[in-house]
Amino acid sequence: MGQKVSPIGFRTGITIGWKSRWYAPKSNYGEFLVEDEKIRRFVDNRLNRQPPYAAISSVEIERTREEVKVILKTARPGLVIGPKGAEVDKLRSALEDLTNRRVNINIVEINNPDLDAQLIAEGISEQLKRRSSFRRLMKQRAEGAMQAGAKGVKVMVSGRLGGAEMSRSETTILGSIPLHTLEANVDYGFVPCVTTYGTIGVKVWVYRGMFGDAEPEPGKTGDRGMTRARRRRENVRSDGPGSGGPGGGGGPRGGRSQARRPRQAESPAPTESAEPKDQQQSQE
Question: How many CB atoms are closer than 10 A to CB 159?
């Protein structure tokens, strides 16, 4: 019970591709694996943890015999490239010194950063360091993702929230998150937020729809931003007081608790009296 798995690792090799794509003999496999982790940590520390804060979402690595190809997915490609490509050249030379191999860097722009779980978690982490209200922050980020076209968002923060003595977890859920469905495109991001009063973990799940579906359009979310309880209340209100549901009129059972009034007998329609007719005949 309580066994959880990362949505990225759960779908890797089935509906999501690998983030490291290369083949190596047994003698070099461990060396390349450690080298990939060093590259990812170096890029994260250089571009995400200090200026220019380039919002790097993921780092993909491909290898050939001659070179190492590093693919950076970022929401701010201009900050990574720099004026006339100066920043990219510095990064390439630093990675070559780190790996002692020839490095080629490709930069891919993220079109909709509000649907990227890692970038959402990064934004929440930066705001928590500035002592923002975590409840308002979680709600704003979740609603922003729903407005961008997501079908479901789940945000969880855990730690000494607000500087409290006892650590706890808070969760915000909008829409649906089908974690057990392999065909569902669920993105996952995790960022540890280091504050003066302790470390707060930030986890974000974003459900974008099924694989193969069209890209979600911003603003077209319908009632997906409602929780189940709120959607149920809205449906009961639209049914009216006589619906018989919890929100109907009268009492705990709505319309059923209203006393039925006995139907009154309808009075017969008034008939014309015969006296005026007799008078008319006598006059004639």
Answer: 21
